Amino acid sequence: MKASLGTIVREARELFRHHGYDGASMQDLATKVGLKKASLYTRFPTKEALVPEVLTLTNDELFVDLPAGDPLAAYALVLERIARGLSEQTRCVGLHLAYGASGPDTPEAALAVRGFFTGQRERLAALIAPSVGETRARELAGDAIARLEGATVWTVIEGDAAPMGRALRLSVEELASTLRR
C-alpha cells in the first residue's frame, strides 16, 4: 500500500494533536499509514518537516467553501469551524506544536507555528477588512482566536463546551456590532 501525501499529513496531524510534537514519532506515523519508516523519511526527511504541512492543511480546511458576498457569514463560518474542531478534539494542533516544537532546535517548526496563528488571523481579517478596515479587522480576528483557544481550557478541564459556545457567540456579535456602527 502506498500512502498519499495527504494521508500522511492528516495522520501526522492527529499524532501531533494527541501526543504533541515530542510524543509523536515517525515510527508511529509510518505504522499508521502503512509504510516502512525509511519510506516515510524519503517523503519527509524529518519530523519537523511535517509541521508546516500539517498546519497549512489545517488552516486551508478552515477557509474552504466560504459564502461569497457576506463577510459576517464567512467570518462566522470559519469561527464555527475552529470552535467545532477545538470542542470535538479538545485540543489545538497549533498549540500542541507551539509548546513542543517552537524552540531553537526546531526553527522550521517554530516558524510554521507562528505562521499558523498569524496566517489564521490574517485570513480571518481579510474576510472582514473591506467592511471594518484593516486595523479593526486584525483586532477582531485576533481577539476571536484568543477567545476560542482559551475556551478550550474549560472544554478539557471541566468537559464543558459552553464557554466555547459563548466565545463563538461573543466573537460573531462583536463583528455584527462593529458592522452596525
UniProtKB/TrEMBL annotation:
| UniProt-listed Pfam families | TetR_N
Q: Name one GO molecular function term.
A: transcription cis-regulatory region binding
Query: Which species expresses this protein natively?
Result: Luteibacter rhizovicinus DSM 16549
Q: What is the name attached to this protein's record?
A: TetR family transcriptional regulator
Record-linked Gene3D superfamilies: Tetracycline Repressor, domain 2 (1.10.357.10)
Query: Which keywords does UniProt give here?
Result: DNA-binding, Transcription, Transcription regulation
